[in-house]
Amino acid sequence: MKAYIIKMSFEGITPQIWRRIILPAGGTFYRLHQTIQCATNFDSLFQEYHSFSFEIEDDFITDNRVLIEEAKGKKDNKRTVKSAKHVKFDVYLEKYGVLTYTYDFGDDWKIRIVLEEIVEDYYFGHPTILDGGGTAPPEDVGGVPGYEEFLSVYHNPTHPEYLFTYAWAEQQGYVAFDIDALNDRLKYVKYKKTEWTSIKHKNYDVLSDKYRKSDIVNLEEVPNKDVILYV
After folding, report:
1. Do β-strands 98-103 and 109-119 pair in parallel, antiparallel, or remain unpaired?
2. E strands, 153-213, in order
3. Which of 44, 147, 187, 199 could form a disulfide with 49 if both were Cys (CB 3.0 to 4.6 A apart)?
4. Per residue in 77-121, pLDDT tens?
5. What is the spatial distance between Cα 61 and Cα 67, in angstroms, rounded to a whole number?
6. Rounded-to-integer distance, Cα 230 and Cα 156, Å
7. What domains lie within the chain, and their CATH numbers?
8. pTM of this structure
């Protein structure tokens, strides 16, 4: 099936925090939002926590119900406000090649989305992270300035606020980038049905695929397998 390979990266953060993701065509902007949430440490994957938007030319695409209701049939500052749940991203992504996702109108996170490739041989009905780097910021940290201050404390055990900050980070779900764990979560962000007839699998466990790893561990390929204790 048709799919897009995109690279998403946080703006204003150095070193870069980025993810390369393949996602099926035909999804709404709300599905794209869920995909981004899943690939980060934010908390709006399955429930609305903070609002988001995509501003593209004269279109302002959002999940904010107040803005959507206020703008029905009207122009807001020469923009047409649309519901993210009712607009598909295909035309926009292919036309412009670059989109900007804004999340949490208070912290004002900006994530740049770049279309890298369009493929026709992706058969899973959900997105997959192909590569990435960097630990994504936690919720409610205060945007880029707050994140920089957070890091200065989080990585300094001698700081008087270190223990409090470390505990707060755990509570916020601040965890290192783990591609396998995130891809397990992404299986629930379904755009369409998986085309299992086009995938090499055994009882729906993937044996091999161009874009996804095998779901089954080949013990013969495990490094230092001779020193592993099997129970």
Report:
1. antiparallel
2. 200-202, 205-208
3. 44
4. 677 899 999 999 999 999 999 999 999 999 999 999 999 999 999
5. 10
6. 39
7. 3-136+177-216 (3.10.290.30)
8. 0.88
